[in-house]
Amino acid sequence: MNLTRETQLGQVARWLTCSRILLYPEEKPDFQIMRAYLGGRATLPSPKRTQQDAPEEQANNEKSAEEGPVDEAIESDGSEDALETEIKSAQDSAALSRITSRCDMSKQEASRPIDPAKISDGTILVTWYATDDLENPQICSFWPKFNVVFQMYQYVVVVYMGSAIYLASGPQFMEVFRASQSVASLGLGLHVLGYGIGPLVLSPLSERPAIGRNPPYMISCPLFVIISQPTAFVDDVHGFMVLRFLQGLFGSPCIATTSASLGDTANLLHLSYLIMGLEIAGFIGPALGPITAGFAIVVTGCHWFMWELSWASGPSFIIFLLFLPETSTPTVLYRRADRLRNLTGNPNIKSESETVQSIPSPSQLTYDALVIPWKISTLDPAILLISMYTGLVYAVFYLFSEVCPLVFVDIYGMNLGQIGLVFLSVTIGVTMAGIFLFCFLHFYVNHRMRVKGFEGPEQWLLPAVVASFVIPVGLFIFGWCS
């Protein structure tokens, strides 16, 4: 994976120069296209090939050309449903082997070419050129993967910090804006409401192969930074609340899309560790917010926390712009298919997503982006229950955040800076939970997966059953000690 070329800045540079710089393999003069994309079959030239191997390879290619194409088209009755069945059949073997192949991918040494599947209407489905194709985000080297993971984690910490960083300014906010306790609590509640609505609107766009993962980040992240500026100046309580909601809305892709970005680069065994780290970052962010703002607000006023949020989120956007590559496999293959069509002039070369997903009308795109996520979230019982439980956990966590100033200021006499230190207990708690969860994943889930294969996602929910008893216990202890 070429990090410079795959970043948003690299794509803009290619567009400005009409694709004269940061060339893809298909755009280079020495690129040798596989014969399968031309109607025949050929092998992918090995980078370690010697000159003695060349005559033998040429003879093999000539022999295969005389014998004719070996790709077999799948019979079909021509209907749209049958065509989708063909495409699914052509990809089933790769899809079913993904679980084992992704687990053992790092152990593969020999490079083998991968011939594209061909269906009965003449469509050639673009895939990876070889088992070690470096354009595949799943098998790129360690540092590109680390780059993606690091950026997702820091993005989550910054955005989640934006929710709880407001808590330290609560007493001063009520004094400056002459607001009641109930109105002041909306500064947190509306921000979290934006978190909940945003993924249903913005995150589905990242699943469109023509869009990919990066554009939603590149749209929402700068808007999150920009909105932080007027929020630091506004003196009207209504305008402040609207801006806080918009902050949560444009920061929300970190909730859903970041986990998808991690899934693009990690195999099934490693993905659980990365998601665990993402959840820990999601709790560390709100814990750091009151600490960073508490002591400063005492001196500089209740608007100061928004400047701190701008200073944290601005560099995050710059890092995204410069170093975040496109990781969506359907998007990478979608763009590869377009380059191969331009190279060969063959309109039948398509990615799987192009054959399954036709170009939607604006109304269909709106329906898919705004209605389908709501239907899935409400009509699927499993997703509905998990969503409700997750919402309950969020409610308990942020309710605890609202109660902290009431308890530790009114009863224990702490100032705003000292209240922030109370939230360090959250980092201790998630660290302890992370250690337990790591052991569970490593010694139970992943061990069983290596031995028996993938047994279903329910096995990952077992720690949540135990934790569901711990939450009310913690609330009772907090209530008794207050």
UniProtKB/TrEMBL annotation:
It comes from the Eukaryota. Keywords: Membrane, Transmembrane, Transmembrane helix. Residues 68-84 have a biased composition (Acidic residues). It is found in: Membrane. One of its GO terms (biological process) is xenobiotic detoxification by transmembrane export across the plasma membrane. Pfam families: MFS_1 (PF07690). InterPro entries: MFS, MFS_trans_sf. GO terms for molecular function: fluconazole transmembrane transporter activity. The keyword Mitochondrion does not apply. Residues 43-86 are annotated as: Disordered. The keyword Membrane applies. GO terms for cellular component: plasma membrane. PANTHER family: FLUCONAZOLE RESISTANCE PROTEIN 1, MAJOR FACILITATOR SUPERFAMILY. This is MFS general substrate transporter.
